[in-house]
Design goal:
- The complex is a heterodimer of chains A (about 100) and B (about 575).
- Helices cover about 70% and strands about 0% of the residues of chain A.
- By secondary structure, chain A is an all-alpha fold.
- In chain B, the strands form seven sheets. In chain B, strands 2, 3, 4, 5 and 9 form a five-stranded mixed sheet that branches.
- The chains are: A mainly alpha (about 100), B alpha+beta (about 575).
């Protein structure tokens, strides 16, 4: 009976330590998860800003004059071959 | 006697011993029970704690009283039909104050005024006066540089909170369609409002971006830019006060572009209150003039007439005290095709009278021109309709006066006539591949549609056609002009017109509809002193088509010669 009592007490203490350890680990993991989440959110925010910046830099009213300055222009009638003709597409710039 | 008493004593001793043993055993049992009970309680406590942890999961949200709990809204991105970004949420710092922690209100106000442009000192003093408050916004949506400047002041009681702010990286492009959000990032107009009402936004207390799927529009950035650019150039070229235009998929009603100038600057929300910057595509209703003859000839074809039906237009039409004449009278009877190509008001009026008021009204109802329309970008301006459809109204409506509709509503009606006869609902939201195709109501016969297509093309190819300046080599453009005098005090103003051109291409199998309207264009040398649509709106539409057709993958007619060599 005495040994049963000791065993039970030992088991109870062990469980308490185990539980404390689990709780401690859980808090650490939670802190790590929150840290990762903050990093992910920061990365998402940075990506959003980069995407917005890219869209801003690639806006048509900025790109079009640059493209035209390079001699680039939309596809023209003379650049498309009909079904019966050659399928070659005439390339080359038309500098203005 | 003695011999008898000894066994009794022995029995007493044994009884006493047993009683003692029994007491010890009871005591031991009690002790064991206590230990077991104690251990049981410990295990129960452990089990209870485990169960609580399992049930509650993460940590509870704890917010201090001084922490601002302002609500904001996380919105999904808006992209064009090719996935290019039109609107997104970005984090920006907002400045707030805890008045109870501020040491010197005057010091705070004076120092903030040195770094924040447009800082309202009186308003800030008022906000900071109530020291019982623990939170008040001072400036929301600061740039990082400004936030750093305020931070460098080192003022106690001021702090920052990151918030989501809507950003439009393409600036003025498609601003009327996209709409606007308020200071809390809540949609108040246009597609932004639609997102709040139909798609859903997420309520957030911090700068947490929405994880919702981006809202994909039917708008094409390239087409939108080309349209806006050409309208802007046309405003300068013809000294017009405003311009509006749209590009619509003729079969589905998908809006590829919609522009109204002068436009809106997203950095200046107050511009939206300026009547001159109204969205003229769907925010206003206008008499559009002779482009309405498209409707009138379709009505005539539906009434059994053909392109070769001859109508006597030699005499002016009278309606009460008014006499309706043609600008350039032919002096001979005209076929319906000629009425369309020469844009004869008398001929159109006669066709409407021949169809009858009842049929005319029924036809306009079928085309959706007699009731208010709505798109995802908001409610379309209600049509201004005549109280009754008497002879005068019948005639004037036939050539686009006496009835005013929003350009988008008119464009939808013309698209229905040209696309084979099926009614379309203009839409800005791209349908997903799995979405069911809505059943379309037939509004005109296929033969009528084909006949009107032929007239559209003829009006551009005919040397006398009013739309000949809209021709773009290879793209088979068709269209109809319309020059409507604007109403003013005491009647119509001769010199102030809305000049419109409704076009479609390629006319052998129309895919896209283009509508261009110029508001109050002036006569210039280029227009040879005229302000008619054929001189300004038609060439503008042609320029728009020449730019957007390659972007839309429309192949020009005829093959190129093989490359030399």
């Amino acid at each position: 009976m005495h040994s049963l009592t000791l065993s039970a007490a030992f088991l109870a203490l062990s469980s308490a330590f185990l539980l404390y350890g689990l709780s401690y680990d859980t808090r650490q993991i939670e802190a790590r998860v929150h840290g990762q989440e903050r990093l992910a959110e920061k990365a998402r925010s940075d990506i959003a800003i980069l995407k917005a910046e890219r869209a801003h830099l690639a806006r048509p009213d900025r790109i079009e004059p640059l493209a035209r300055a390079q001699g680039l222009a939309p596809l023209g009638e003379q650049q498309i071959a009909g079904g019966s003709g050659s399928s070659a597409i005439v390339t080359g710039s038309t500098a203005r | 006697m003695r011999a008898k008493s000894r066994p009794r004593a022995r029995v007493r001793e044994i009884s006493a011993g047993r009683a003692l043993q029994s007491g010890e055993a009871r005591s031991q049992r009690v002790r064991v029970s206590v230990v077991i009970l104690g251990a049981g309680l410990c295990f129960a406590a452990v089990a209870g704690q485990l169960a609580r942890l399992a049930a509650t999961g993460g940590t509870e949200l704890v917010a201090s009283l001084s922490e601002p709990m302002a609500t904001s809204f996380a919105r999904p991105e808006i992209v064009d039909r090719n996935g290019r970004l039109l609107a997104t949420d970005i984090e920006m710092p907002s400045l707030f104050a805890d008045p109870s922690l501020i040491l010197s209100r005057d010091d705070v106000v004076e120092k903030l005024a040195t770094v924040l442009p447009g800082f309202d000192e009186a308003e800030t003093r008022r906000l900071l006066a109530d020291r019982s408050r623990r939170f008040t916004w001072l400036r929301r949506g600061l740039s990082p540089q400004l936030a750093q400047s305020v931070h460098n002041l080192g003022l106690p009681g001021l702090s920052f909170r990151d918030e989501l702010k809507r950003a439009y990286p393409l600036e003025r492009l498609a601003r009327h369609v996209l709409g606007a959000v308020n200071i809390d990032n809540r949609g108040i107009a246009g597609i932004e409002r639609y997102i709040d009402d139909q798609v859903g936004v997420e309520t957030v207390h911090a700068a947490t971006r929405s994880e919702g799927v981006a809202v994909r529009l039917t708008v094409d950035i390239g087409v939108q830019h080309s349209l806006e650019d050409e309208l802007k150039l046309a405003m300068g070229r013809y000294d017009a006060k405003g311009a509006a235009g749209l590009v619509m998929d003729i079969s589905s009603g998908a809006m590829l572009a919609s522009a109204s100038l002068p436009g809106l600057d997203p950095a200046k929300p107050s511009e939206a209150q300026d009547p001159a910057r109204l969205d003229r595509v769907q925010g206003g209703s206008y008499e559009l003039g002779s482009v309405w003859k498209t409707i009138t000839v379709a009505l005539a074809f539906e009434s059994g007439k053909s392109v070769d039906t001859i109508v006597d237009v030699t005499q002016p039409l009278t309606a009460g005290r008014f006499a309706i004449t043609d600008t350039h009278p032919a002096g001979r009877p005209l076929t319906i095709a000629e009425i369309f190509v020469h844009s004869s008001n008398v001929g159109a009026g006669l066709l409407a009278l021949d169809a009858g008021a009842s049929r005319q009204k029924q036809f306009l109802e079928k085309l959706g021109l007699w009731s208010q329309m709505r798109t995802e970008a908001g409610v379309v301006a209600a049509p201004q309709l005549p109280d009754q459809l008497e002879r005068a109204e019948q005639i004037t409506i036939a050539y686009g006066h006496g009835i005013a509709v929003a350009p988008i509503q008119f464009a939808a009606a013309v698209a229905a006539i040209l696309n084979g006869g099926e009614r379309v609902q203009p839409t800005y939201i791209a349908r997903l591949d799995g979405d069911a195709t809505p059943t379309r109501e037939r509004v005109v016969n296929l033969e009528t549609s084909k006949a009107v297509r032929d007239l559209f093309r003829r009006n551009v190819t005919d040397p006398h056609g009013t739309g000949r300046r809209a021709e773009v080599a290879g793209y088979r453009v068709g269209g109809k002009t319309g020059t409507a005098e604007m109403p003013g005090r005491g009647g119509y103003l001769e010199k102030a017109v809305i000049s419109s051109f409704v076009a479609a291409f390629p006319m052998d199998a129309p895919k896209y509809l283009v509508l261009v309207s110029l508001f109050e264009p002036k006569a210039t040398d280029e227009t040879q002193g005229e302000i008619t649509s054929g001189r300004n709106a038609a060439p503008t539409a042609g320029r728009v088509i020449s730019r957007i057709a390659p972007l839309l993958g429309v192949l020009p007619e005829g093959a190129a010669a093989a490359p030399p060599g």
